[in-house]
UniProtKB/TrEMBL annotation:
It holds the Pfam family TMP-TENI. It comes from the Bacteria. This is Thiamine phosphate synthase. InterPro entries: Aldolase_TIM, ThiamineP_synth_sf, ThiamineP_synth_TenI. Residues 25-180 form the Thiamine phosphate synthase/TenI domain. SUPFAM superfamilies: Thiamin phosphate synthase (SSF51391).
Length: 183
């Protein structure tokens, strides 16, 4: 059962996963997201000071646009950095949003056991960010998405608005991408 999730913002249906490949286009991509979208801030490769500076710039845009901003990493860091939540499978925190990446049944169970209320299920289709990783495909993705309940499922992996529209909102709450927002 998902832990308490604050009601400050509704769970967005459209998400951007930050990635170093976006480079200088990152802030513009976040600015172009529909109002009330979500951003998962990753950028693990940066040293902490640089990561915090970039996070602060992203946070300013997210605040102006009404976006939910989730920090990939520890819950305590997300709380200290004033993120709306954290993105990690094996942690728990009851005062902020908790999302988690999941790819199989064991990871889904772990994330739900730890109270995640938003599950990023991937990869639905082949993706440039994980070359060579086999895609779940529609059938397996659908099976796993049903097992994510009661958490909100966000489809990830080769996604765009048209692909997301093919899934019933009762099964898939929303979608996330990197490349779809850079075109």
């Amino acid at each position: 059962m998902p832990a308490f999730q604050p009601l400050r913002k509704p769970v967005p249906r459209t998400w951007l996963m930050t990635d170093p490949r976006l480079g200088s286009r990152l802030l513009a991509a976040i600015q172009k997201l529909p109002a009330g979208s979500g951003v998962i801030f990753r950028h693990y490769e940066l040293e902490e000071r640089q990561r915090r500076q970039l996070f602060a710039a992203v946070r300013r845009i997210c605040a102006r646009r009404g976006h939910m901003l989730i920090l990939a990493g520890e819950a305590r860091d997300a709380a200290q950095w004033h993120a709306d939540g954290f993105h990690r499978r094996n942690s728990r925190h009851r005062a902020i949003w908790h999302s988690a990446p999941v790819h199989n049944l064991n990871e889904i169970r772990e994330a739900l056991r730890n109270g995640a209320g938003i599950l990023f299920l991937s990869p639905l289709r082949q993706t440039r960010s994980h070359p060579g990783q086999p895609a779940l495909g529609p059938s397996r993705f659908g099976q796993l998405a049903r097992l994510c309940q009661p958490a909100k499922v966000i489809a990830l992996g080769g996604m765009n608005r048209a692909q997301a529209a093919k899934w019933p909102q009762t099964m898939v709450h929303g979608w996330a991408a990197i490349d779809a927002f850079t075109k």
